[in-house]
Write a structure and sequence with these properties.
This protein is of the alpha/beta class. It is built from ten helices and ten strands. The strands form three sheets. The protein has a five-stranded parallel β-sheet with strand order 3-2-1-9-10, covered by helices on one side. Strands 4-5-8 form a three-stranded antiparallel β-sheet. Helix 7 packs across helix 8. The structure holds glutamic acid.
Length: 296
């Protein structure tokens, strides 16, 4: 059920961080870009907490994240949607895909996925097949087993993977989406979901994955314009495919540039990039941060 139904015709944007670490300047840039575009287009700006990772996301980080955004002076419309409170909705979508034989259980460990990609590379004499994020492309070991009736106990821990070829056969290859710029222009982009292979739609521990949750939530929240970093541009290929499969609308997308550290690497919590809280402790003000990021 939409948490914040849009007034008819009104544009809806969302900022969707994960409380798995403190927010850094890259998040501030993304939140501020959303805020600016929402204002320019007279749209609503929603906050969604992407906390499906029940180990790394904590209530304390959830509180801290909202405090950091309030400190920056970003106001959100409507209720906050927290993904961990909506597992039932993700289960319904998975069940639908399962009934249509579009997902299959996969029991492979990360090491097994790597080993299969290495074996494929050795056999073909080509480099390892990788997805756009650089992870080994899944070779389809368990797809073959699933089609053959399966031999392993389904109770064993497993993920659910999308059968990409069946999915494309179901919706057709003509997948495209619109990228909008700040002046309102829209460019058509052709999606290339094959480069991702059979992506995971449900993790071992929770009945969803990033891809499935983000697509369902954008639709359930009535999001019309997704503003996200360029690091998620390629993932949009899978999102458009899932929207088509599930009969959901495809929003327009805008990809903003990423901030880099002194070594030219993307800012990341995992690399210990300075957090907004660190900057606050050093005496920086929200106004200075807004100005430094070009939102003065
Ligand atoms: N939760 C994602 C992140 O923190 C962003 C979600 C999205 O824009 O799809 O990178």
């Amino acid at each position: 059920m939409p948490t914040s139904p849009p007034a008819s015709g009104q544009l809806v944007l969302r900022f969707a961080p994960s409380p798995n670490g403190r927010l850094h300047l890259g998040h501030a840039l993304s939140a501020l870009t959303n805020e600016r575009l929402a204002r320019t287009m007279d749209g609503r700006l929603l906050l969604r907490i992407e906390d499906i990772d029940r180990e790394r996301c904590t209530p304390a980080l959830d509180v801290a994240l909202r405090e950091d955004l309030a400190w920056l002076g970003i106001a959100f419309d409507g209720d906050v949607r927290r993904q961990s409170e909506h597992f039932g909705e993700y289960r319904v979508a998975l069940e639908d895909l399962r009934r249509r034989s579009l997902v299959y259980p996969c029991f492979c460990s990360r090491q097994e996925v790597r080993a299969a990609a290495a074996a494929q590379a050795a056999a073909s004499g080509k480099p390892w097949p990788t997805d756009p994020d650089g992870a080994p492309l899944y070779s389809g070991t368990c797809r073959a087993t699933a089609l053959g009736g399966g031999t392993r106990e389904i109770e064993a821990p497993h993920v659910l993977r999308l059968d990409l070829e069946r999915a494309l056969a179901a919706v057709g290859e003509d997948l495209a989406y619109g990228v909008f710029d700040s002046s309102g222009g829209v460019t058509r982009v052709v999606a290339q979901p094959r480069r991702w292979g059979d992506v995971v739609l449900a993790r071992k521990d929770v009945p969803t994955s990033y891809h499935l949750a983000v697509v369902l939530d954008d639709a359930l929240q009535g999001v019309t314009h997704v503003v996200r970093g360029r690091d998620l541009e390629a993932a949009t290929d899978i999102h458009v495919l899932l929207q088509r499969l599930l009969g959901l609308p495809t929003p327009l997308y805008h990809f903003h540039d990423l901030l880099a550290d002194a070594e030219g690497r993307k800012l990341a919590k995992s690399r210990g990039s300075e957090s907004l809280a660190d900057l606050m402790a050093q005496g920086l003000t929200p106004d200075q941060i807004r100005r430094d990021l070009g939102f003065g």
